[in-house]
Design brief:
Blueprint lengths: L1 H21 L10 E10 L8 E2 L2 H6 L8 E2 L7 E7 L2 E8 L10 E10 L1 E10 L9 E9 L4 E7 L4 E4 L1
């Protein structure tokens, strides 16, 4: 009798866990919506150019600090813009990370959009260019309902990729 109660308790527990794994149904977005995710890390250009130190400047430094060039650590902020057609989805000026503002700027945003065909434009500027973008890409993408379009920046090819 005790074995029967244990089997019944385990079966009941398994049935409850199985029921809760499929009900209530959870969806990230509504049935006619999709998600665009923009996610990448990129270091802006250095604020100043490297300069070669003169022999007098090198002699003034301690022996363990004598490097022939002096390069500033600080980097420019990264300006990012994401549009779908004429709609501005995301725009930000991202400060570099790190104590000395010498690290990468990080971006992660998720935007819920209506499913369907979108003319996506993404641009990034990592230097002193005031107008326009140093890196940009645009594409016409058909985002199906419930799907996620991921946009990231590939450091090797130096371009935005849509996946």
């Amino acid at each position: 009798m005790r074995l029967f109660r244990e089997i019944f308790a385990y079966a009941l527990f398994a049935a409850i866990v199985g029921l809760l794994s499929v009900w209530p149904r959870y969806a990230l977005v509504d049935a006619e919506e999709a998600i665009i995710s923009l996610s990448f890390s990129h270091a802006g250009k250095r604020v100043g150019e490297c300069r070669t130190l003169s022999q007098e400047e090198l002699n003034e430094l301690p022996p363990n600090m004598r490097k022939p060039t002096d390069c500033p650590r600080e980097r420019h902020p990264v300006r990012v813009e994401l549009r779908s057609g004429d709609d501005l989805l995301y725009k930000d000026l991202l400060a570099p990370s790190g104590i000395w503002a010498d690290g990468k700027a990080n971006v992660y945003c998720r935007i819920v959009v209506p499913a369907g065909i979108h003319e996506i434009f993404v641009g990034m500027n990592d230097g002193v260019i005031e107008d326009g973008f140093a890196f940009q890409n645009q594409a016409s993408v058909d985002i199906r309902p419930g799907r996620n379009l991921v946009i990231h920046f590939d450091e090797q090819s130096q371009q935005f990729l849509f996946q």
